[in-house]
Amino acid sequence: MDALYRRSYAAADVMRAHPPQLDDRNKRLVFELAMAGPAPAGTIEVTRWAARLLPAELEPIRTEQLAMAGYYDYAGPSDGVWHVNFADPSLFVAYGSPLLAQDELQCAEHPALGSVREALDAEQLPAITEDDQPTPILIAGVERRCTLETAPDLAASRPYGLYGNRFARAEPEAIRRAVRVHRPPPCSNLIAIAAPVGRGRYTRATIERILVTAVTGFGAAAFESARKWPGARFEVRTGFWGCGAFGGNREVMTLLQLLAARIAGVDRLRFYAFDDAGRADFEAGAAALERALAGSATLPDVISRIDAAGYVWGTSNGT
Questions:
Q1: pLDDT of the residue at 123
Q2: What is the pLDDT of residue 317?
Q3: Closest CA to 234 of 12, 18, 64, 19
């Protein structure tokens, strides 16, 4: 595989040359807390990838599937481990805004991502779609300077949590209590893929586009893992991509990510399902994939079975 482009940034240099532009007071506070202490270190590598063609035949690849409680915890070594960023078609477009959904939370915890956005914007390169085709962006080696706790906690002055629109309304003291600074900061690797938008019944074209997007992002991460960390186990960590603000169907979005992981050769997929209801949705998606795969050797047949299931879009959760 060849990247459409490859950029390497010394973290300290890119943050100095392209400081994050933070319009929201609480985003600025999180940034100040996270960046106190040692200067940014290491090199951030950014790559963009052309959409892959889907194979006709399915290889007998088995991906280990783990359903996890809660949200990303970023635990363990980072070599070969990639976290999906539920991106906008314009990379990190709302990172400095009052919004705090999954994309913006990752940017808050990895402050250099704002500088990556500004550096790419200076070159007019931040898009992750082109000619209506997915072109995922990978970011490797970015420091995670803090954890921003968003769960409800009455004792910490956030009785309803900080996720979504509640973040901007929170008082500074609640933000301070929610930020846990990491010293030294670990590094993360991210797969930025644009979440699909739609309504009504999922069409075959939409199903195929979602699959192409995930296969391209996961496949690019497989290539980069083999290049950067030979011998490391390749793991993708994800969740209900596109199922919040965009109202995606949890079952089919689980199913398609699990199928993409098999096509891309992911060794382990760790799926963060939030709670018991989310775990049930994950299990339903995994079972639906097995039904679609049963007795079929070709991917078009599998896609036809998924299409025939008649999946329907849900409604936005308002984040």
A1: 97
A2: 73
A3: 64
Task: Domain ranges for the chain, please list them.
Answer: 5-308
User: Which of 151, 150, 121, 153 minimizes the C-alpha distance to 137?
Assistant: 121
What's the confidence (pLDDT) of residue 244? Answer: 85
Q: Which segments in the chain show pLDDT lower than 70?
A: 318
Model pLDDT, residue 246: 86
Give the separation between CA 88 and CA 111, rounded to whole angstroms. Answer: 18
Give Cβ neighbours of residue 163 (< 8 Å, ≥ 6 apart).
100, 101, 105, 150, 319
pLDDT at residue 1 in the model: 78
Q: What are phi and psi of 276, to 5 degrees?
A: -60, -40
Both tokens of residue 130?
Answer: 């082109």
Cα atoms found within 13 Å of the Cα of residue 146, Cβ hemisphere only:
27
Q: What digits encode the pLDDT tens for the residues 270-318?
A: 999 999 999 999 999 999 999 999 987 799 999 999 999 999 998 877 6
Task: Tell me how many degrees the CA angle 113-181-239 measures, rounded to the nearest 5.
Answer: 55
The pLDDT of residue 152 is 95
Residue 244: closest CA among 65, 105, 73 = 105
Domain 5-308 has CATH 2.60.40.640: no
Q: What is the pTM of this model?
A: 0.96
**What's the angle, vertex CA 21, arms to CA 19 and CA 27, rounded to 5?**
110
